Amino acid sequence: MTAQLCKRCSAAEAVFVSRKEPFCRPCFVRYIRGKERKQMAPYKVTYPPRSSSPTPPVRLLLALSLGASSVALLEMLVEHLRDQIETHRGATGFAVTAVHVDCSSVSAYSRSPAAAIDELRDKFGDICTFDIIPLDDFLLNSSDELGVFSHGPDLESYSFTSPAAADDTEALPHTVKSDILDKVRDRTSKRDLLSTIIKTLVVCAAVKHDSPTLLFGDTMSRLAERVLSLTAKGRGASIPASISDNYSISESVVQLFPMREIMRAEAGEYAAMQGFAEYIIKPAVTPAAVLRMMTIDDLLVNYFREIEAGFPSIVSTVVRTADKLKDTTAEMDMACAICGVKCASEPEKWLQNITVNTSAVENPQEPSDSDTLTKDKDILCYGCLVATKSASFTWPCPPRSTKEEIISQYEL
Ligand SMILES: [Zn+2]
Ligand SMILES: [Zn+2]
To answer: Which keywords label this protein (predicted)?
Structure first.
């Protein structure tokens, strides 16, 4: 059997087949980087009119989960910056700060994320900067640092302590503090709330680092999963807010998905080819063995893993179609207290009219004086309402702090 030749250069032996096309290593690397550079085109080195000194670089914040895609994106950004430095005599169009939210209190990494970040800092500290945020910052109610996040009852008695928290077990916390995610019974809701917490932390980090753009390593496969998952979770209205480039996710920060044209398998292969596999240490989400126990996200990961190999166009169709959806929430004046998505009116009222369920956002400690409740109650979107409905206490809501408020927390 003769070795298959790379279809691009017709010279080297193919080492990887993607979208049914055989690639040699250099051609594959160029192909994948080309997709990233297309998305990052606005961040080239520019010169003001009649000036020979370039415009100062824009600081971009990379949400580095240490999964294959964000690690691949980090490598591409580093190479992109190196090319700019070489071509423009040291000047760059952007600067990168990579931020990792340390989730080791809720899920087991394959090795210490702090050690991995230290190694990355040693290796690329001259090109970009790194920051690590403990997940518990979300709960540090009265701390001087990121304490602007949460308000709610007795937050000091909660923590992210149970390794099983993001999993399906009914494991009870053994520590004095009880695990906040254990208060939510449903697996899908748990996962949903955890991702909202992580996103809140990285958005806050972007504000803190004065970065107007937050980069996410989500691949086309991940974006497609998110479209279907949001739909299934009753969060369809927030699809544009969750997958669109340049969408404002806070007063001063927009999001960008430079990997939106790249499949998950391609990102994994790329990271491995470039020798970055050792930094892919994100806790592998082990889907429940029993179908009944799977979260919506587990089911969709499995679904897209199968179709992205054989029918890649289906994946891109899901994302492109969803990207055309009109954002009907942009004009709305109320925002969900938990995830920050805009909502039209109180979905809870509408829900109460059709069901007899009460939500968990009312403080059980407080007398049910309806005046206090309506005055102080936070508005939740339908998705967060469903996610916290199984919580047995008031879920903490991150107040949407202004940029000034967040920065003032950091002043010495
Ligand atoms: Zn080739
Ligand atoms: Zn919400």
So the answer is: Cytoplasm, tRNA processing
* pLDDT at site 403: 66
CA 243 – ligand 1 centroid, Å: 32
Residue ranges of domains in the chain, CATH in brackets? 40-331 (3.40.50.620)
Ion ligand 2 residue ranges (Cβ < 5 Å): 336, 338-339, 381, 384
Residue 70, phi then psi, degrees to nearest 5: -70, -30
Question: Residues with Cβ < 8 Å from 58, sequence gap 6 or more?
Answer: 43, 93, 94, 95, 211, 212, 213
CA angle 249, 250, 251 (to 5 degrees): 140
For residues 60 and 80, is the Cβ–Cβ distance under 8 A?
no
pLDDT value, residue 285: 61
Residue matched to tokens 């003769």: 2
* Beta strands, E only, 55-105: 58-63, 94-102
Query: Structure tokens of 401?
Result: 């702090």
Q: Is beta strand 158-159 parallel, antiparallel or unpaired with respect to 178-179?
A: parallel
pLDDT at position 152 is 46
> Please, are residues 283 and 241 in contact by the beta-carbon 8 Å criterion?
no
Distance, in Å, from the CA atom of 15 to the CA atom of 390, rounded to the nearest integer, reads: 49
Taking the centre of ligand 1 as the mean of its atom positions, its distance from the CA of residue 18, in whole angstroms, is 13
- CA geometry: angle 227, 232, 237, nearest 5 deg: 60
Rounded to the nearest whole angstrom, what is the distance from the C-alpha of residue 14 to the centroid of ligand 1? 7
Q: What are phi and psi of 399, to 5 degrees?
A: -65, 140
Tokens of 366: 């407080």
Which pLDDT does position 217 carry in this prediction?
96
User: Residues 170, 236: contact at Cβ < 8 Å?
Assistant: no
Task: Identify the residue whose tokens are 């166009």.
Answer: 313
Closest by CA to 360, choosing from 343, 377, 375, 372, is: 377
C-alpha distances (whole Å) from 70 to each of 75, 174, 270, 357 are 9, 34, 11, 40
- Residue 238 C-alpha to ligand 2 middle, in angstroms? 9
Grouped pLDDT means (10 residues each) for the chain, 412 residues: 86 93 96 97 93 92 96 97 95 97 86 95 96 83 38 53 41 48 75 84 90 96 93 86 89 94 95 95 70 79 84 90 83 77 68 53 42 50 78 61 64 50
